[in-house]
Design a protein that fits this description.
Order of helices and strands: EEEEEEHEHHEHEHHEEHHH
CATH class of the largest domain: Alpha Beta
Strand order of the largest sheet: 8-7-6-9-11-10
CATH superfamily of the largest domain: P-loop containing nucleotide triphosphate hydrolases
Radius of gyration: 20 Å
Number of helices: 9
Structural class: alpha/beta
CATH architecture of the largest domain: 3-Layer(aba) Sandwich
CATH topology of the largest domain: Rossmann fold
Length: 274
Amino acid sequence: MERIDGSVAACLPQGRKIAYACGDRVGFDMTSADQGVIKSAGPRSTLFTRSDAYRTKLIAANATQVVMLVAAEPGFSLEFVDRALVAARNQRVPALIAFNKTDLPSAASALARLEPYRKIGYPVIPLSVKRDCAPLLPHLEGQVSLLLGQSGMGKSTLVNRLAPEANAATREISQALDSGKHTTTHARLYHIDAASDLIDCPGMQEFGLANISFRELEYGFAEFEPLLGHCRFANCRHSNEPDCAIRKALATGTVSPQRYASFRAIAAEVKNQS
């Protein structure tokens, strides 16, 4: 828990069943020099989670945008990107894609994979984190940015460039928790400047969305929104139904085959409710 003076203390919730996320604004009482108990929490403007059929895990609270980090190498999953973008639309916050490692020979072909996202309005920001983060900085101003990405995309390097105190803060958390766990397993909020924050989440390979409904999933795909309500059947699943507006758009190229494949994959796990 970060105090007003910027120092960090290990704080536990007052009740066992109460769960908090990185980015929550809480009130707490100190019980010792570096430990405390959370007594209250403010309302959340947004809450990001990931879930499967068995459990839901909190990711971050009060984020105002999502920054999806991908890279030329190693290869990144477009379905993972789509899942993050669905989560952003579900929380009614904007999202952008930061493309790292533009200095590698494979950058051009990897960047081309993101062209469908440009076409539907998502900003794609090419940069080489090790050389210069300047292209991304204007997009972070005044935001609480949730940084998502698979392992190996360069998140740690980006965080250390944007918040030079990150290494020191990580060590402080380790000492406060008195834990031998690697601290990248914990989400952490860093201050980029007085008006801009960055929530760094651990690199992950899966982003489950089992907690959302099928209707929320439909609206999670920006290019689907103007087509919804134009299928023959009101309960169309956009699979094999006749006169499906989504599948017609797929046939004409308005909807990307890859994006449609992601939709079908996620639809297999979400709640079957409207």
